[in-house]
């Protein structure tokens, strides 16, 4: 049945200049697109447009990581300052209560440092003065950090940059898949693609991020990225699917093994051409399968993190109960403060909405994968199936980004985008971004999650 899916189409390749992988990619795209009468081979302008988009995504990903780290550090510093304030306040109260009996006692502490003995002597009164100073500094520091967090809007900036980076990735795959407005001629599709990228970057000006420093590159490293297909593939694996790049030692070890002849160079995995137009089979291989693995690993890491934080929360409450039952009522606020800090940290780094959304997204991708393998070859290779496949997958990716950032703004969608149903019928209702976001998010009072597929 496979030869029935082919059509008479002319594909021009250059075996002298192009590599074997490039020629194989073009021929595979030709044979897997039976409805396409004219194959738009990736030209230098096409490749340049895609590379510019990936360079923009690299800048956005780095900016998003910086803002995310800054926002997390500010929130952690504020929480730790408040926790230390509570703990030191309890210690100060204990010292004041014990001051009458131990006021005249002098304590000595000694330590050896570089063959010298350091001796520190202090009394309860001196220790109370130090605690009073700390109790004055820590609340003021927490207030200043909170003011800086509100003034610079680090969390809002991170959410905006992360959402734009996610939309840039969606635009790249829609452009490579000739979806929506990019289904026209190559020159017009490239102009629409670049105009769309500029509009996405201009949205960041609302959050106070200058778009000139993103569109114009002054760094030689940014201008030279990516140096080869391997560098682009590593960037995609790292920033889209959470795969750590190979270290320098591992690369040198591979090079040494290849040079010594212990490993055949042809047996090593070769980087694919990620700037060529996508067929349905290629999109399934380069986008959906890695996204499924990423969501599966993300669910496991979120579940482990939430379990560890919940165990710490329960232990803190048990400690507070034990202190209260033992008569040490004065020390109960310390474990209660630790429990509050752990709850805040849980909602910050592993919110329940994120875990529920990723779980439903993985369920949807698994359903797409099963329908793909259960459908006919000609049906899978049709342009309608490819459009529905790309449209639904990119919607899932953007909705997960919206849940992760807590954004309420919906990404713009073209009217020509349809959802993937697997069998091409119209009985399956359309899944919009609004409905998908509502189905992926679960309320705290509900114990069951509605399946979005």
Give the tags.
single chain, 453 residues, 2 domains, two-stranded antiparallel sheet
How would you portray this structure in words?
The protein contains 15 helices and two strands. The chain has 453 residues and is mostly helical. The N terminus and C terminus are likely disordered.
Q: What topology does this entry show?
A:
Elements: H1 20-31, H2 44-102, E1 107-112, E2 117-122, H3 124-152, H4 154-176, H5 186-202, H6 212-215, H7 220-223, H8 229-241, H9 248-260, H10 280-325, H11 333-349, H12 352-374, H13 377-380, H14 383-405, H15 433-440
Antiparallel strand pairs: 1-2
Helix pairs in contact: 2-3, 2-4, 2-5, 2-11, 4-5, 4-14, 10-11, 10-12, 10-14, 12-14, 14-15
Quaternary structure annotation = single chain
Return the domain count.
2
How many DSSP helices?
Answer: 15
How much of the sequence lies in strands comes to: under 5%
Shape: elongated
- Rg estimate, integer Å: 29 Å
- Going across the major beta sheet, what is the strand order? 1-2
* Uncertain stretches: 1-8, 34-40, 413-431, 442-453
Q: Class by helix and strand content?
A: mainly alpha
Helix fraction by DSSP (H/I, runs of at least 4) = 55-70%
How many angstroms separate the termini? 30 Å
Query: What string, H for helix and E for strand, traces the elements in order?
Result: HHEEHHHHHHHHHHHHH
Mean pLDDT: 80
**Quantity of strands, as a count:** 2
Described by strand count, sense and barrel closure, the largest sheet is: 2 strands, antiparallel
């Amino acid at each position: 049945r496979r030869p029935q899916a082919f059509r008479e189409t002319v594909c021009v390749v250059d075996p002298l200049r192009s590599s074997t992988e490039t020629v194989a990619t073009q021929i595979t795209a030709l044979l897997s697109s039976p409805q396409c009468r004219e194959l738009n081979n990736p030209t230098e302008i096409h490749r340049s447009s895609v590379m510019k988009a990936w360079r923009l995504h690299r800048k956005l990903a780095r900016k998003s990581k910086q803002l995310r780290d800054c926002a997390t550090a500010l929130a952690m510093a504020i929480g730790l300052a408040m926790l230390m304030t509570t703990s030191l306040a309890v210690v100060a109260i204990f010292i004041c209560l014990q001051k009458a009996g131990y006021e005249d006692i002098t304590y000595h502490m000694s330590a050896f440092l570089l063959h010298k003995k350091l001796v520190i002597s202090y009394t309860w009164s001196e220790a109370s003065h130090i605690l009073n100073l700390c109790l004055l500094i820590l609340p003021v520091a927490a207030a200043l950090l909170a003011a800086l967090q509100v003034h610079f809007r680090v969390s809002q900036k991170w959410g905006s940059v992360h959402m734009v980076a996610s939309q840039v990735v969606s635009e790249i795959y829609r452009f490579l898949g000739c979806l929506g407005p990019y289904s026209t001629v190559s020159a017009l599709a490239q102009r629409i693609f670049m105009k769309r990228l500029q509009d996405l970057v201009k949205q960041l000006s609302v959050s106070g991020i200058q778009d000139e420093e993103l569109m114009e590159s002054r760094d030689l490293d940014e201008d030279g990225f990516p140096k080869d297909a391997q560098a682009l593939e590593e960037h995609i694996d790292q920033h889209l699917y959470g795969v750590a790049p190979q270290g320098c030692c591992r690369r040198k070890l591979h090079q040494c093994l290849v040079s010594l002849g212990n490993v055949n160079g042809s047996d090593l995995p070769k980087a694919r051409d990620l700037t060529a137009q996508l067929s349905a089979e290629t999109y399934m291989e380069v986008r959906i399968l890695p996204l499924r693995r990423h969501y599966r690993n993300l669910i496991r890491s979120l579940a482990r993190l939430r379990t560890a934080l919940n165990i710490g929360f329960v232990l803190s409450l048990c400690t507070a109960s034990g202190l209260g039952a033992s008569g040490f009522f004065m020390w109960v606020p310390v474990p209660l403060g630790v429990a509050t800090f752990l709850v805040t940290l849980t909602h910050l780094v592993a919110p329940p909405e994120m875990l529920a959304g990723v779980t439903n997204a993985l369920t949807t991708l698994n359903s797409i994968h099963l329908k793909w393998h259960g459908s006919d070859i000609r049906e899978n290779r049709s342009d309608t199936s490819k459009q529905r496949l790309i449209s639904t997958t990119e919607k899932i990716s953007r909705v997960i980004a919206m849940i992760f950032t807590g954004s309420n703004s919906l990404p713009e969608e073209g009217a020509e985008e349809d959802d993937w149903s697997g069998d091409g019928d119209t009985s399956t209702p359309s899944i919009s971004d609004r409905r998908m976001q509502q189905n992926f998010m679960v309320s705290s009072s509900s114990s069951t999650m509605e399946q979005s597929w």
